[in-house]
Amino acid sequence: MDALKDKIKGNWNQIKGKLRQEYAILNDNDLAYEVGQEEELLGKIQEKTGQTKEEIKKFIDNL
User: Fold this and answer.
1) Alpha-carbon distance 36 to 51, whole Å?
2) Which of 5, 7, 9, 12 is surrounded by the most beta carbons within 10 Å?
3) Cβ neighbours for 61, distance < 8 A, ≥ 6 positions apart
4) Sign of CA dihedral 38, 59, 18, 44
């Protein structure tokens, strides 16, 4: 998770745009990011998209 945390922290605006393109159902509230809240963020995305956390992590890792 540490590599994923670093990627999220460093590139959040780009990642957020790609997530919106992939999952149009996501809105600003779903993608509100705060440092240290990566697991909560993934949970929100998972809940809205129906994807598993592993699928979401893989999507972000592949960006």
Assistant:
1) 22
2) 7
3) 3, 4, 7
4) negative
Structure tokens at 32: 């509100």
The 3 state secondary structure assigned to 13-54 is: HHHHHHHHHHCCCCCCCCCCCCCCCHHHHHHHHHHHHCCCHH
pLDDT in tens, the chain (63 residues): 688 899 998 999 999 999 999 999 999 999 999 989 999 999 999 999 999 999 999 999 999
Burial (CB < 10 A; 0-12, 13-18, 19+), residue 33, is: middle
Q: Which amino acid is at 8?
A: I
What end-to-end distance do the CA atoms of the chain give, in Å?
15
